[in-house]
Amino acid sequence: MDPLTRIKRIADYQFGRGVGDVLFPDDVEIEYSKGTGRIRYVYLKGKRLATLRPTDGLFSLSIYGAERITKSGFPAKCLVTVDADAAKFVAAGGDVFAGYVIRADDEIRPKDEVIVINEEGEVVAVGRAVLSGSEMAVFRVGVAVKVRRGRIEES
């Protein structure tokens, strides 16, 4: 299987069918690990879209990659919506607390890669779910998403 097809299939599995085509157009640049020869980073026009984690073989998104998914209007299964009060804190790299989650996709499981958006649908951060999507909707305390990168940190 060629590398482009492989990364698209991984993205489809991880974020929902069809997301691979949205996230990775045909002109992406793939960088390989010097030590193992495996796919490590995926770039588009010099900007990193995603990193393929060697531990589980799934992607960690950059803010740019997350924006490509959300701006496409494609129904990805990895979105967590936070209220306006929390959006500023989260954009600076703070974790998402369950009490500020307005909506979370039911398909989200703990340790899944998620995109945190505000009520207007703009990407605020990317990170890893601590709770499932259904738990995020009902819990009022505790960390829901461990943020890896906030929008303000990346700009």
What this model shows, in words?
The protein has helices spanning 3-15, 19-23, 63-71, 84-91, 133-138, 151-154; strands spanning 29-32, 39-44, 47-52, 59-61, 79-82, 96-97, 101-104, 113-117, 123-129, 143-150. It starts with a helix and ends with a helix. The radius of gyration is 15 Å and the shape is globular. The protein has two domains: 3-71, ArcTGT, C2 domain (Nuclear Transport Factor 2, Chain: A, Roll), CATH 3.10.450; 79-154, Roll (Archaeosine Trna-guanine Transglycosylase, Chain: A, domain 4). A hairpin with a 6-residue loop joins strand 1 and strand 2 (39-44). Helices cover 29% and strands 32% of the residues. The chain is built from six helices and ten strands. The protein is an alpha+beta fold and 155 residues long. A six-stranded mixed beta sheet has the order 6-10-9-8-5-7. The chain has a four-stranded antiparallel beta sheet with strand order 1-2-3-4. The model has no long low-confidence stretch (mean pLDDT 93).
Write the layout of secondary structure elements.
Elements: H1 3-15, H2 19-23, E1 29-32, E2 39-44, E3 47-52, E4 59-61, H3 63-71, E5 79-82, H4 84-91, E6 96-97, E7 101-104, E8 113-117, E9 123-129, H5 133-138, E10 143-150, H6 151-154
Parallel strand pairs: 5-8
Antiparallel strand pairs: 1-2, 2-3, 3-4, 5-7, 6-10, 8-9, 9-10
What are the main properties of this structure?
Archaeosine Trna-guanine Transglycosylase, Chain: A, domain 4; 2 domains; globular; 6-stranded mixed beta sheet; Nuclear Transport Factor 2, Chain: A; alpha+beta; 4-stranded antiparallel beta sheet; 29% helix; 155 residues
